[in-house]
Amino acid sequence: MIVVYKADYKAIEKHRTIQDTLYLSDSIAVSGYKDSMQIVKSIKEIKNKDEVYYDIEWNPEFLATFINVIKPLNDAAAKDNVKMSVVISGVDAEKAATLAKESGINAEFLTADEKLLKTMMRSNPGIVLWKNGVLIQKWHFKKLPEWQTIKGKFLK
Asked: What dotted CATH number matches 2-12+58-154?
C-alpha cells in the first residue's frame, strides 16, 4: 500500500462555455385508453453557460517520485500477482485518476483522512507491506529496497 497523506498539486482555475438545454414537459391523453396519460418532453431552449473548473498541475518532484519509485515497484509486484493500492488524502476520485494517468500507475486509488494516513506513515509517500491483513514492514520512499529483495525477505 502506498500512503500519501498530502497530495502535492496546484488547482488552476479555468473557464469554459457549455450548452445548457431547458426542456418543457407536458402530459397528453392517450386515445383509446381510459384515464391514460403520457409525458412528452420537448426542447424549450439551448443556452450557452459559463462554467468554472479546475485543472490539476502536479508538483514535478511529487510526480517524479511516483514515476521513478512507485511505478517500478508496482510493475514488478504486478508480475508476481501482488496487488498495490494507493491511499491518498486531499483529493477526490477525479484528481486521483489524473495522478494515476500521469504517473502510469495501474493500481486502485482510495482516499482517506490525512490524520489517519499520518498516523500510519510519516513519509509522503510511504510504502506499507501487508500480508494477510498483518503489517509486515514500512519504508520511506527514499529507502525502498528493490522488489526482488522485498519478495525474497518478506513474501516467502
From this structure: 3.40.30
